[in-house]
């Protein structure tokens, strides 16, 4: 019942809260390790890519990695990002990237691995070549949180407002946005879902 009502019962990334306003937060995240899949959304849906990553950690059975008896704990959010137009939904991480076939529509979905994996080599090696393990350095984001369904219009509206607020307050946006979704959309009722739009920024305002 807790998941239906939006309870987040898994590890989430730690961060330092640098600033909070009535419109957004500035957060600083420490280095982390992610498992990710880059894909063409016209060929693969979010649900299918989520399953590839879930299989890597062993969410649905034996892990698809080099240590099949060792499951990796699920975390939240799942993050996704795409340049310009948006089209996605849920907590896994998807970022616009080059990898598979480089195209303007390519997206990357990521799971942030538990904090005990400090380096990429600490994580079990995937047996599915579509899964890549990456290290993320320290970074800062401007973040706005919202509930409900993270459909295109809802994300676009919040992204525009967030970008405008950050630039007004002297922050320089230094990359593409991320959409972070903390609850399984096939389980959690829309009003109880937690979503975040995140924009990478330089770590201090001008």
From TrEMBL:
Pfam families: SOUL
InterPro entries: Reg_factor_effector_dom_sf (IPR011256), SOUL_heme-bd (IPR006917)
Family: Belongs to the HEBP family.
Entry protein name: SOUL heme-binding protein
Gene symbol of the encoding locus: SOULb
